[in-house]
């Protein structure tokens, strides 16, 4: 049987403990009870570690939900909701200082800057080929591992990359796929296939008039021009891309003598008289 002194000491200890709980709860610090267990100040459950207690406390405080007012999507973080709303408003607050192109996220802007610098920071550890984004590297790496994660829902055939899968799937929709006989990638038309072959041959027919760097397609060359200053870009347009060849009949101008010659034929008899 507990003595009066022991009962008094126990009651006093409990009062001290309650006082500590109150102070600890206000500070957000996990509290140890008399048996050195961490206990929940909401329901009194005991736990051996702080981690277990924190995990338990989430049952009393469920995560906040941030719903989009414009569509049914919901988010667990306010920042993600704010970024998502930009897809509805069309706002692109992160603007490239070189070409003024806008992006919804800073991450996308940083990836875009690599177009101007030509930097390829993501290197394949197997073949050392460089890529501008992590996603491009991941898709490339599949070629080394032999993995084929893309499966055709029509016939079950599997493919290593999304590009290969899309090219194949096009054959099920009535189109005729054009397949590369070197790497077996498929394309929906011959023009795209011919452009792709340049990757294997190493040919770079589109050459920069400022630095003589070659590219496999014109769109890449156009993006490359942005790496040069506005002064060089303007100089290139004025000196190299000027329409120097003038039709004697209608004074229309052309970039090359071949273009002028083809145009000249449109004038028919008049052109023949001038040629004579």
List the helices and strands and how they pair.
Elements: H1 4-27, E1 31-32, E2 38-39, E3 46-47, H2 50-57, E4 66-67, E5 74-75, H3 78-89, E6 94-95, E7 102-103, H4 106-117, E8 122-123, E9 130-131, H5 134-145, E10 150-151, E11 158-159, H6 162-172, E12 178-179, E13 186-187, H7 190-201, E14 206-207, E15 214-215, H8 218-225, H9 230-239, E16 245-246, E17 253-254, H10 257-264, H11 269-275
Antiparallel strand pairs: 1-2, 2-3, 4-5, 6-7, 8-9, 10-11, 12-13, 14-15, 16-17
Pfam family, one: zf-met
Domain C2H2-type: 38-65, 66-93, 94-121, 122-149, 150-177, 178-205, 206-229, 245-267
Subcellular location: Nucleus
Describe the structure.
This protein has eleven helices and 17 strands. The protein has helices at residues 4-27, 50-57, 78-89, 106-117, 134-145, 162-172, 190-201, 218-225, 230-239, 257-264, 269-275; strands spanning 31-32, 38-39, 46-47, 66-67, 74-75, 94-95, 102-103, 122-123, 130-131, 150-151, 158-159, 178-179, 186-187, 206-207, 214-215, 245-246, 253-254. Helix content is 45%, strand content 12%. The strands form eight sheets. The chain has a three-stranded antiparallel beta sheet with strand order 1-2-3. Strands 4-5 form a two-stranded antiparallel ribbon. A two-stranded antiparallel sheet has the order 6-7. Residues 1-29 have low confidence and may be disordered. It has 276 residues and is α+β, with helices and mostly antiparallel strands. It is found in: Nucleus.
